[in-house]
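Continuing from the previous page...

OK, I double-checked the sequence for Terpene synthase against my notes and this is the correct one:
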Amino acid sequence: MFDIAPQRTGTSSPARHEYEKTEGFFLPELPRLLPVAYHPKAAQIEFRSNAWLRRYLSGCFVGEGDLLKFLRERVGLYGPLIAPTADEQHALDLADFYHFVAVIDTMAADHSGLGASHCGARDVFDRIIADFAAVIEPGMSDNSPFGPAARDLWLRISAGLTPHQVERFRTSMSSFLRGVASELPYQLNGSVPDYDTYMAVRRDSFGCDFILLLTEYSLAVDMTELAASPQFAKVHAHAMRQLILVNDVLSLRKELGDPMNAVRVLRRHNGLTLQQAVDAVCELAERHERAYIAARDAVRYGPFGAHTDVRTYLEGLDHLLAGSQEYEYLTPRYFGDGSVWDGSTSGWVSLTAPIARFLPQAGPASEQRRTKAVRIHTRRS
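Thanks. Re-ran it with the corrected sequence; updated structure tokens here:
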């Protein structure tokens, strides 16, 4: 498989730059080569998904204030953004599912709660898997707030999957929860993995397998057989890396101290400043986006492209990548509770202000974007 990775410098000890305090960074303009579209019923779907979250998962929050803060992150809009051509029910199913996943992600990041123990998290995740399989083993506690939500999602989504997809869905949820649990030791002890290890773990914890499967679900197609082909493997590899890397730079303000972020990985192992690492990750994201488009076109205009389902699926992948990035610009999850997106996609991002927006330039002159280009190369792996 073709991969794109940052050039290694041989630096393995913490670089001095990693401990420098900075007030912010400049986010370069990302290419955005894919079409952004909103589902025609996006607002209605978001509101209905908010109600679903309150009904099934309000018990995951300390109180009404925490629940409302989470709802202001507008996770319910994610489904309508990544599946704008899906029928309304399928788009709602995705909105509810990603609400479920976002709650897990939020709770795992709380190192005084679910994220305090790798073993404790594994126990909770095992119960979630059982709930998605609609099976509660003898002696297994079923008092988790995730249980009813998982079973509701499973009943709705599994009805629209083929038997092969049902098995893939169960496997994908196991991979996701295993990935989330695998991140916890790094987060608890502060160690930073190298780039290859990071990407291997992150592919699971980001939910790449269920993201691809639910793209099929939203379009009522089954790519199970074709997904194993080298052509599709290449499409998926570049697509998922683009998703991960774009998320890493747009969520950086929220995750600055998290070792499971490509910006932190490059600072730690390649001896880069914060701005150099941001620039490098943005360049990697662009390269993967362009490589995805090339791989997608090779499939679209090759023998597989004769199938209507294949063309439909590839269009769905375009919407997935573009819609995910659109959501990450607009959500207060990454730019502070109370932030309102004005459509800007590049600029100075403050790390110290309670609420950030993209500004045309930095405050202190010393923080202006004056960095050397970071070399990035393409390799085969």
